């Protein structure tokens, strides 16, 4: 028995609905997969809670430090970038990113991050003279930019805030030669096994001795030059002076 037109139309309509539903379902799945891939490419999402975002950022900084310590600087760069995405005001993340850029010999990018970290560390230490770690990192950033005087001030404040910070004393010695011997000695007092400080102290003492000898030699040479110059002046004065006329003995009255 042939199907009536109404039944055929109903069947066609049902098939049409099934096809439309299948197409929509496939499109939705593709969109979800696309969104998932995009999220994966962009990295983990930033937590909405600021405190949680800061905690995750610091955790990423520690992970990046481990990678950098194992010379995995390219991976470290990506991790430090994620840390900054979570917390743009994390000064250490910027400093560490700069250090990894420097290890990869991308100097301009490194300098940008060093300058940003200096800006953030200065804000962090503004009015707070007890944050030894922040002052130490501030000194590091200045040192990497060859801003020696600023580095010395930061390292010195770090040693004031934490007098037993052996690394800060060592860095202070490296940053400012005139204070090197005392700074390296202080570092050795805190850690007698620090061979770096021991070698640096020996070199600094030898250098100081050479400077003293050089100054002494320069002073002696200058003194001789002045004596020679004075002698020449006297000779010239005597040779150019006209002889005085002989005086006739005065007769007694």
Describe the fold and architecture.
The protein starts with a helix and ends in a 13-residue tail after the last helix. The longest helix has 46 residues, at 195-240. Among the domains are: 52-126, Tetratricopeptide repeat domain (Serine Threonine Protein Phosphatase 5, Tetratricopeptide repeat, Alpha Horseshoe), CATH 1.25.40; 128-224, Alpha Horseshoe (Serine Threonine Protein Phosphatase 5, Tetratricopeptide repeat), CATH 1.25.40.10. The chain has helices at residues 5-42, 50-69, 73-86, 91-103, 107-125, 132-144, 148-161, 166-175, 180-190, 195-240. Mean pLDDT is 78; it is low at 244-253. By secondary structure, the protein is mostly helical. The protein contains 10 helices and no strands. It is 78% helix and 0% strand.
Structure summarized in a few sentences:
This protein is 78% helix and 0% strand. With 253 residues, it is mainly alpha-helical.
Give the key terms.
disordered C terminus, Serine Threonine Protein Phosphatase 5, Tetratricopeptide repeat, 253 residues
CATH-defined topology of the domain at 128-224: Serine Threonine Protein Phosphatase 5, Tetratricopeptide repeat
Radius of gyration: 39 Å
The CATH H-level homologous superfamily of the domain at 128-224: Tetratricopeptide repeat domain
The proportion of strand residues reads under 5%
Which word captures the global form? elongated
Residues in helix, %: over 70%
Instruction: Sketch the topology as an H/E string, one letter per element.
Output: HHHHHHHHHH
Secondary-structure content class: mainly alpha
Report the strand count: 0
Q: How far from one another are the termini?
A: 183 Å
Sheet having the most strands: none
The overall pLDDT average reads 78
Number of helices: 10
Q: List the uncertain runs.
A: 244-253
CATH class of the domain at 128-224: Mainly Alpha
Q: Mind telling me which CATH architecture of the domain at 128-224 this is? A: Alpha Horseshoe
């Amino acid at each position: 028995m042939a199907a009536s037109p109404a039944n055929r139309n109903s069947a066609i309509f049902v098939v049409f609905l099934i096809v439309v539903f299948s197409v929509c379902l496939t499109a939705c799945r593709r969109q979800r997969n696309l969104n998932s891939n995009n999220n994966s490419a962009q990295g983990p999402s930033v937590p909405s809670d600021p405190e949680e975002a800061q905690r995750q950022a610091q955790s990423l900084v520690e992970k990046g430090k481990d990678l950098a310590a194992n010379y995995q600087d390219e991976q470290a760069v990506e991790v430090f970038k994620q840390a900054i995405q979570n917390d743009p005001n994390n000064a250490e993340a910027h400093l560490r990113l700069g250090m990894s850029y420097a290890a990869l010999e991308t100097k301009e990018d490194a300098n940008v991050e060093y300058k940003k970290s200096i800006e953030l560390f200065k804000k962090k230490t503004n009015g707070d003279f007890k944050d030894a770690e922040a002052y130490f990192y501030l000194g590091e950033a200045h040192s990497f930019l060859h801003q020696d005087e600023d580095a010395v001030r930061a390292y010195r404040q770090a040693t004031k805030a934490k007098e037993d910070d052996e690394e800060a004393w060592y860095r202070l010695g490296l940053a400012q030669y005139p204070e090197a011997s005392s700074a390296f000695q202080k570092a050795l007092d805190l850690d007698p096994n620090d061979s770096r400080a021991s070698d640096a102290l020996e070199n600094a003492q030898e250098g100081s001795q050479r400077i003293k000898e050089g100054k002494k030699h320069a002073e002696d040479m200058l003194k001789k030059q002045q004596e020679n110059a004075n002698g020449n002046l006297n000779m010239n004065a005597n040779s150019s002076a006209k002889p005085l006329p002989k005086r006739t003995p005065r007769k007694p009255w």
